[in-house]
Amino acid sequence: MEVSRVWGRLAARFGGRPARSASQRRQSHSGNAGPATVSGCLVTEFGDRRAALMRTLPAGSLAIFPAASKIYMARDIPYPFHQDSDFRYFSGFAEPDAVLLVRSDRTSAEQVHTTLVVPSRNPSVELWDGAMTEVADVPSIYGVDSSESMEHLTAVLQAEIASSDTVFLEPRNAFPQSTRFMVNKVVTDTVVKKLGGTVSGLNRQVDSLRAVKSEAEVALLSTACQQATEAIHMGLCFAVLLLCCRVFWFPCCCSLALLCCCTAHLTVSSAPTGAPLQRCWRRDLG
To answer: Against a cut of 0.85, is the pTM above it?
Structure first.
């Protein structure tokens, strides 16, 4: 804890902003970009996306979206984490090892129930990866109907499958111990082996839905393009500055260095000991 406190003070000293405690980081993480906003979009935007997806599926369907898992290059060194794009598109949840369950009512596809299964908070994980979202706070932050802990994933999946007529899960390769591997195993054992049903993919429906951009997505793309333009402009200005320094200042520096060398040579030659040194140098050359 002392190391983290010192690190926070150094970050506050050289980073230009005050250090935040764990509770403050958790509050800012939960609030994200502002009230009722997640990942730069309003919470209602993700609800509209889920509703639009379920309208393309039959009534009584269950769509399952596993989140990405952390991959380690060594025992304690992970690769940079990148969230599953479909999972984040429909949930806005940026943390790893979670599952989004979207189920429509058997009587009407307009009645949609959403459950987000997330990991429980772990102090040791939070020490390295930052604050985690409390399971009980997920519905109020991300606009889902209910939330569950990952410890109950199997029971939640079985209950949701029992309440559905058709299960949709995009088949993708997953490494063992990953969230997608666990979901694939539970769905296969429950739907295929016990119920004798089939699992359908979601690529066609999701791609068709994501091809048409909403106003919120257009605003995000505009902001991203503006930031990229500013970054390119700053990079070009810096490159021009370096080029000017090389074109104009480098010759000046070389001339100044040559002038200093000539001055030093003349000073040594005119000194009382300069004449013998100069004669010895000429004698060596013959």
So the answer is: no
